[in-house]
Amino acid sequence: MIERDPRLAAEPDLEPSSGFIASVMDAVRETAAEPPPLPFPWRRFVTGLCLSIAASAAVVTAALRGVALFSATGDALAELAIPLAYGMAGIVCAFVTVRLTRLFT
Amino acid sequence: MPLADQDAEAVVRVLAGDVNAFEDIVRRWQRRLVNLAWRFSRDRTAAEDMAQEAFITAYKALPTFEGRSAFSTWLTSIALNSYRARMRRDGPPSLGLDVLLRTRPSSFVPRPSTMAPSAAREYEGRETSEAVRRAVLALPARYRDALVLFHLQEMDLNETARVLGVKEGTLKARLHRGRELLRRRCEALGLTAGTARPGEVT
Fold first, then answer.
1. Contact B151 A8 (CB under 8 A)
2. Which residue of A75, B129, B161, B194 has the smallest Cβ count within 10 Å?
3. Residue B23 touches partner A, C-beta closer than 8 Å
4. How much is the ipTM here?
């Protein structure tokens, strides 16, 4: 059993001031009147995230394949054609992502 | 009607959209929240500000109240978190230089000359107690909170443990260690009259 320390405990309570309840209730009513916070746009967020990952993966794959092709053939056109195609695909994906996410607005 | 039922009824009404029902909660618990804030701030105006902030936080969090603990425990936990944040932001109240000087043997602060010796002793005792209570607020948070809730606010062990979210054994250890730390600090500050060794006060 722990006893209280009388030097710490023996302190009279404060009486809240007469206007305290009114003041709190004014603040509470003000809070209640505020519009609710906007919910986080999870659908837009998830769609955008998935498409961004797909686009990034496409660009990285293209870059890797371009490097591999360059080292195998040394053909300048072949070096550029595939990475450019994947780069374009990445840009198109990004554009589609933006358009799709706007559909959920 | 028991307090718990009154609280439950008020909570249901507030959640149903009756904001005015929250006034019942404020009326019932204002004293506890204001006094707990007073224990932390040692300032009346600040205490009412802190309690008001705690009530607003509780109002916003009301939909999360699941009734697993008593409403009073839940509300006190919310208030305690709010007061802790305030303490982290503002720091503990000062010990009071005049009090320190008065309690130091080497200090040069004359006792009020118009007071009778017994009144002067009582005055000094009050000042020393106040300094000890302020010294509690300068302890590490885990010991400070335990001492404030149990010794200053005079909540029982069980409810103090539930508000702090710890087991009773842990709380007892914190109370013991907290009082030991407090005793050492008070000795260092020349406030030995205000604190007994843990276990000495029975």
1. yes
2. A75
3. yes
4. 0.77
Residues in B touching A17 (Cβ below 8 Å)? 48
- Distance from the B107 Cα atom to the nearest Cα atom in chain A, whole angstroms: 23
Give the pLDDT confidence score for residue B111 in this predicted structure.
Answer: 55
The pLDDT value given to residue B39 = 92
pLDDT in tens, B70-93: 999 999 999 999 999 998 998 887
d(CA A104, CA B124): 70
Which B residues 93-112 touch A at CB under 8 Å? none
Q: Is residue B124's pLDDT more than 80?
A: no
The structure's pTM equals 0.70
The secondary element (H helix, E strand) that includes residue B161 is helix B157-164
Residues of A with CB under 8 A from a CB of B: 2-11, 13-17, 20-21, 23-25, 27-29, 31-32
Taking only the tens place, the pLDDT of each residue in A50-95 is 998 998 898 888 888 877 776 666 666 666 777 788 888 888 888 8
SS3 labels along B78-147: HHHHHHHHHHHHHCCCCCCHHHHHHHCCCCCCCCCCCCCHHHHHHHHHHHHHHHHHHHHHCCCHHHHHHH
Structural domains for chain B: 3-90 (1.10.1740.10), 97-194 (1.10.10.10)
